[in-house]
Amino acid sequence: MIPLAYFFEKGYAGSADKKMLRGQAVLLCINEEERKMNSGTMIILAAFIIYLAMMLAVGAVYMRRTSSSEDYFLGGRQLGGWVAALSAQASDMSGWLLMGLPGTVYALGTGQSWIAIGLFLGTVFNWLCISGRLRRYTIRANNALTFPAYLENRFHDKKRVLLAASSVVVVIFFLVYTASALAAGGKLFSSVFGLDYTVSLTIGAAVILAYTFMGGFMAVCVTDFIQGSLMLVALLVVPLIAYFAVGGSDTLMENIVQSGVEGGAGAYLSLVRNGDRNYTAVEIVSQLAWGLGYCGMPHILTRFMAVRDEKELKKSRVIGIVWVAISLGMACVIGVIGRGYLYPVVLGTEGTASAENVFIELITKLFTEQYRLPFIAGIFLCGILAAIMSTADSQLLVTASSVAQDLYKGIVNPKADEKKVLTLSRVTVIVVAVLAYVIALDPDSSIMGLVSNAWAGLGSAFGPTVLMSLYWRKTNLAGAAAGIISGGLTVIIWDYLPIIGGQTPGTATGLYSLAVGFAVSLVVIVIVSLCTEGPDSEMLREFDDVASGKVCG
């Protein structure tokens, strides 16, 4: 572009011409900026396309290797330590890790980190106390391929009550959980590319559906490994670069205060503050209670079942715990740094993006506006997409296994051959994805709210039953069934029925339904098990074999 001063110096422009030329120059500058923005968007889009193509290629490769339902649901129990660890944790965290958690910290301060603390403690407990014993028990209990099948075999459930009840719970709550992941994907594409939310939602759902449909468990685990690695890099690199770009801690704190946080920087960074007030004991207990959910998450528990051997499982424990500690910590840091770096823009106010988009906005401003590295921005934005996809694919697969393997082959048609079960599994993946897509169509749906409801339902229904099945010898079939039903119903009543002055119990008390549902289920299991006929001798022998470590494989 020729500088405007050139025309003035050469005498080519009179006063009227000068005004016209100035206007043209401004338009040229605006057009140049739009061209750069469009170019940057296209480069980001190229990064997304490359990434999505890689995921689909993995699905295609493993589709050729999948010949049985055991391959499709558990990968033949051939997961290595690294793949098992990153797959378990990536499938756990979802878009909540890179959108929900940073968003709530951004809006209300580091006091929201109590959820992260609870999840970290739950992760440690799950790896140390659940993973090894559950893997051994699934082998000892007639080589169970799915989580509901484990419960059936563990309690010698010949009437298949547990199989039916647990499968129904999985389908109901995983529909909501999958919807939360699809909604996160829709918001990501909409924010980055300016697409209509529905179009964005459709694109994300189609890709997740494609590779889950094709490759099954191993495709999901391998893609989760890639996605877990990418998430970790994004979580580590982006906030560190933003911290130095904003000018260090002094400028960061000054911007945070100027952004209008309640009570100043001290209150914003305090663990005992919840926005404009102090935390109550009920609120802290509620957030820590998120950790209880790990004991009952089928998509995580199936990873434990699929690990190759005990040696690989020990490796997975260390990798998984370290990954979660870093990821949860840095997700909270993103919320704080995003508050300072993005100022004077304050997300969540009128005309701005939602606070849940803080990581997206941070990456976009940092790498497309400040450093002009749109392809790098695209790679890190793929980290958010990775978090979304790694959870949605696992949820689709677990739901498919519950319908095809547990309900259809287990109850409806026990003589169904492998090919028929495999076909039904893939059909179920499509149906569940479509239903979750319908739930996620509301662009105002909260990722945090959807995840919270699903997490509470699954954790309350299955967590106490899993824990007692592994550690209490006297747990029987009646107790397990009562625990699943009471835990799931408690969450539904607590969150959805306005029975206290027109409010739900959850709203009236402020106590998270998972804490209540878990406690109710645990008490019911003990009472019912003690009041009904105890386990038979074979069930007790299986328990003792697992407890003593005699089972191998």
Q: Give me the side-by-side strand order of the main sheet.
A: 1-2
- Give the overall pLDDT as a whole number: 83
Tally the helices: 21
Radius of gyration from CA coordinates = 26 Å
State the end-to-end CA separation.
71 Å
> Percent helix among the residues?
over 70%
Structural class: mainly alpha
What's the number of extended β-strand segments? Answer: 2
Unreliable residue stretches:
1-13, 26-30
What order do the SSEs take from the amino end to the carboxyl end, as H and E? HHHHHHHHHHEEHHHHHHHHHHH
Gross geometry: globular
Specify the biggest β-sheet.
2 strands, antiparallel
Proportion of residues in β-strands:
under 5%
Describe the structure in your own words.
This protein has 553 residues and is mainly α. It has 21 helices and two strands. It has a two-stranded antiparallel ribbon with strand order 1-2. Strand 1 and strand 2 form a beta hairpin. It is globular.
Secondary-structure blueprint of this entry?
Layout: H1 4-9, H2 15-65, H3 69-74, H4 81-108, H5 114-140, H6 147-154, H7 161-193, H8 197-246, H9 249-258, H10 264-268, E1 273-274, E2 277-278, H11 281-288, H12 298-306, H13 310-341, H14 358-370, H15 374-412, H16 418-439, H17 447-471, H18 477-496, H19 505-509, H20 513-531, H21 537-548
Antiparallel strand pairs: 1-2
Helix pairs in contact: 2-8, 2-15, 4-7, 4-8, 4-12, 4-13, 4-15, 5-11, 5-12, 5-13, 5-21, 6-7, 7-8, 7-15, 7-16, 7-17, 7-18, 8-13, 8-15, 8-16, 9-13, 13-14, 14-15, 15-16, 17-18, 17-20, 18-20
